[in-house]
Structures are given as C-alpha cells and as structure tokens.
Write a structure and sequence with these properties.
There is one protein chain. The protein has helices spanning 32-41, 58-67, 85-94, 115-126, 177-186, 195-200, 220-234; strands at 2-8, 26-27, 30-31, 46-53, 75-80, 100-105, 131-137, 144-145, 157-159, 167-169, 173-176, 205-209. It is α/β, with parallel strands linked by helices. It has a single domain, classed as Spore Coat Polysaccharide Biosynthesis Protein SpsA, Chain A, CATH 3.90.550. The chain is globular. It binds cytidine-5'-monophosphate. Cytidine-5'-monophosphate binds at residues 8-11, 22-23, 52, 81-85, 88, 107-109, 218.
Length: 235
C-alpha cells in the first residue's frame, strides 16, 4: 500500500508572537509549511501529502503549494483544519483515499526534519510497529510540579523522573492507518501527540532515533535557529 503524510498546519502560532498563522511564516523567504511539505515529499516512500490548513486559509495554502516547486511524483491535498490539533489531524485522516496503509503525522512547525528520520519512521512501521515516534534524550532534567497553593506562590516540586529514561518526541510520527483511525474514533480528552492516543488503546508504540534538526519552531528564538540550520545546509 501507499504511505501518506498528514501535516497539521492550522495552528495560530501564538507563542511565536503576532503575525500570520505559524505555518505560513517564512524561513529564509520560504513559508515554513513549504519546507515541511518538501521534507515529507523528500522520502521516496511518501506518495501523498495532505496539508491541514487554517479553517479560513485553505485557498491560500492551495495557492502556496501551486507556486512552489514540489516533486512530480507526489500528490497533494489541502483540507481545512479544526479548533484543536487533534481535530485537524482527524480531518486530514478523513481525506485519505483507499490504498493508503501507512500514515505519517508531521507538524508544519518542524520544517527541517531530515529525510533519513522520515525514512526510519516509515521503516519501523513497515517492520510491524503500529505506532512509531522519533525521539531524543533530554538535555535538561525534568521536574513534575503541582499547582501553587495560591496565585503568586511558587509551584512545589513533587517528582523528578529518571532523566535517562525520558525522551523528547518529535514528528513525523508513523502509524498503521487502521490503528490511528481507531484511536481517533475511540480516544477522547486532550492529547499533545498522536502516539499517546494509540498508547491509550493499549497498542505498542516504539521510538526510533530523532534528529536535532527536527526541533519544533515554537518561540522567536527557534526562528533564529531554523534560519541558521538552513544557512549551514547551503554552505
Ligand atoms: O500548538 P502546537 O505547537 O502543538 O502545534 C503543532 C502543530 O499542530 C502545528 O503545525 C500547528 O499548525 C498544528 N495545529 C493544527 N490545528 C490546530 C492547532 C495546531 O493543525 N487547531
């Protein structure tokens, strides 16, 4: 069967500061979304990319895809997104044609993921894992806190998970299509990644090595880093 990539790109990007929806902001003159689309289409295994656009921005996103050079061998679809990332991914899944059996879900906000990482995720799904996430060890120690007893008071620390066993997870996350669709039909509640929905089904989720260039562009400093990575690639 085919492998498709769903790119949720409907977020406002509030943490990045005021401006256009995050996915449409430029990195070295090219919208972040176009970088992300090219990163998925760079994999020879990916034959379809579904972009989930801001609800009122589907036409604009279609026009963007038409005006930027993209691989001939890849099909592209644009669908409008929803209020939450989860809802946006669901609309992307709903647009997949028959014959697609592996689905990647990739944040538009991770425009620089290398193709080797994309291929490693696909390979692990092909090898039988229902869900695969690229992940990196943490540099920082992580603390679990409780809400402060009253506003303005410091938050008490309640636990320090063993850092060596923690991973920061990235995208693209790869899935057996039927498993991800079932997760979206079954799991409710707020989630911050797609694999956690599959975990809630009790299905096996595994990690493959992530890449430092697959970081998420979230805050203004991330834009500086992303443009530096692009400059280094061109050097
Ligand atoms: O907000 P967060 O950083 O988790 O967003 C991750 C990705 O999800 C971004 O690419 C963003 O555009 C997308 N998103 C979406 N629909 C929403 C909210 C976020 O497609 N309603």
């Amino acid at each position: 069967g085919r492998t498709a990539a769903v790119i949720p790109a409907a977020g406002r990007g509030v943490r990045l500061g005021p401006g256009a929806p995050k996915a449409l902001r430029a990195l070295n003159g090219t919208p972040m979304l176009i970088h992300a689309v090219r990163a998925m289409a760079a994999s020879r295994a990916v034959s379809l990319v579904v972009v989930v656009a801001p609800p009122d921005g589907a036409a604009e996103v279609k026009a963007l895809l038409d005006t930027h050079a993209l691989p001939e061998r890849t099909d592209f679809l644009v669908v409008p997104g929803g209020d939450s990332r989860q809802e946006s991914v669901k609309y992307g899944l709903d647009a997949l044609p028959p014959g697609v059996d592996i689905v990647l879900v990739h944040d538009a906000a991770r425009p620089l993921v290398p193709v080797d990482t994309v291929d490693a995720v696909i390979e692990a799904v092909r090898d039988g894992a229902p869900a695969v996430v690229p992940a990196l060890p943490l540099a920082d120690t992580v603390k679990q806190v409780e809400p402060a007893s009253e506003p303005g008071m410091p938050e008490p620390v309640v636990a320090t998970p063993e850092r060596a066993r923690l991973r920061a997870v990235q995208t693209p996350q790869g899935f057996d299509r039927a498993t991800l669709v079932r997760a979206h039909e079954t799991v409710t509640g707020n989630v911050t990644d797609d694999a956690s929905m599959v975990e809630q089904l009790g299905e096996r989720v595994v990690v493959v090595p992530g890449h430092e260039e697959a970081f998420k562009v979230t805050r203004p400093l991330d834009l500086v880093l992303a443009e530096a990575v692009l400059a280094r690639r061109r050097a």
